[in-house]
Amino acid sequence: MTIFDLEPVARQSTAELIADRLRVAIMRGNLTAGSQLGEADLAAKFQVSRGPVREAMQRLVSEGLLNSVRHRGIFVIELTIDDIEDVYHSRAAIERGALERVLEGRRDVTAAALSSAVEAMRDAADRGDISAVSDADQQFHETLVQSSGSARLVRAARTLLIETRMCLGALQSTYADIHEQVTEHDQLRDAIAAGPPERAFKLLADHMDDAVTRLREQQAAEAGSPEKGTEIGG
């Protein structure tokens, strides 16, 4: 193959750029769960025609991030407790697989990499910056998976990126003191650095289970009854 055989690099279309912006806004909670999106409003916001906005929104509908309701419009998805449990069960499987590889000979370098996320989380908690705590939480778990050296585990984790961030945003309000969250990650980092592998596996599993329990209780409290199914942001 010569350089003349290479295909030109495709530029992102306007619709792709808008879709990227909307994904980030959903992930960070700037577009809240359940909120309705209007073509005209978004077109004015992005200073484009309605065509690219419509295409971008349809892409996110196909990705499951937006929900199209006939005769009503398009809304940001709301995660039910079943969705949350599915996200965390999937994450648990991915991150346990990553942890297995890390404990086979990558402990020191992984613990060192995780330390920056723990310190960022601690600094954010000290400032009372809940959004930054969520960012550092996500960084911690992404670093754990990346440290496994498995490209497939990394790709699998990325498919859950936006839903994970939505869960993390809701999770912050379940802690009386967000420093508790820092402690959980600090203990997991230390267990990865040294000690019996069983402790690291247990801390990771407990961490995931605790998040699901907190979010389930949060939804039950918001609904006023544990029997009524509600959604994050509903």
Automatic annotation (TrEMBL):
List each coiled-coil range: none
Q: Which SMART domains match?
A: FCD (SM00895), HTH_GNTR (SM00345)
Which residue range or ranges hold the HTH gntR-type domain?
12-79
Q: From the UniProt record, which GO molecular function terms apply? A: DNA binding; DNA-binding transcription factor activity
Record-linked InterPro entries: GntR_C (IPR011711), TF_FadR/GntR_C (IPR008920), Tscrpt_reg_HTH_GntR (IPR000524), WH-like_DNA-bd_sf (IPR036388), WH_DNA-bd_sf (IPR036390)
The cross-references to SUPFAM superfamilies, in alphabetical order and at most eight, read:
GntR ligand-binding domain-like, Winged helix' DNA-binding domain
Print the keywords alphabetically. Answer: DNA-binding, Transcription, Transcription regulation
| Pfam families tied to this protein | FCD (PF07729), GntR (PF00392)
Q: What is the name attached to this protein's record?
A: DNA-binding GntR family transcriptional regulator
User: Organism source for this protein?
Assistant: Hoyosella altamirensis
